[in-house]
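User: Sorry, what's this?
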Amino acid sequence: MTILDRIIAQKEMEVRELKAIYPCRQVKPQKRRPLFESIRRSDTMSVIAEVKRASPSKGDIHHSVDPVMQAKKYEEAGASAISVLTDRQFFKGSLADLAAVSAAICELPLLCKDFMIDRVQIDAAVEHGASVILLIAAALSEEKLKELFDYAKSMQLDVLLEVHNEREAETAVNIGANIVGINNRDLKTFHVDLAVTERVAAILKNEDIVIVSESGLQTGEDAAFVKKAGASAVLVGETLMRANDIGVTMANLKIPLMRAVR
């Protein structure tokens, strides 16, 4: 089994647990800045800053982190949005982390970063304060992807739809995604290559789509590379979690986009 296969098998067990906990009802998300507009209007590279305790490829990154303090540092440094990893088994996160950050950070878009395979996970994300959810094309059939995308949009959530190759990018366009994340990490092998953004972004030349480059971003040079490919936002976890000075690291990533503010 690939790492992704193992993660999805774990998610199937977690979904059964969640369905025993959460009633079948929709909860309205909190009013926060829309992620799409925040990215589209920015004249610098938008940074979605991630609270990330660990990962399957890196092991512990900062297991004892206080998610609220970390998120506040991100907000002070100029993050455009906050991402909280809520996967327990592989990333050592939790929905409690998401809820704590939601209570402390009132305006920034808040992404629940997890492997969504069922509506109940979206319900749980919203109940814990998320205004944005992640859908991963590699983890879902196109039919299921469309179902969960439409469900999230019906709840007025922003959706970061993650792709890794050209075929998945075409699926994202067909579904109507307007925030497309290009993951430079292959979720089957966890190999990272920034050239993935350069290659896949060519499919997404559409003014109604904003591109978020994910994984492997460390420096201003990396941000400039993906900007040239068409990205106007980056999702950064490990680099910020390990940074000695979050403000300096964030400033290095927030390069000018050289475009008129919309």
User: Anything to note?
Assistant: Residues 155 and 210 are 21 Å apart (CA to CA).
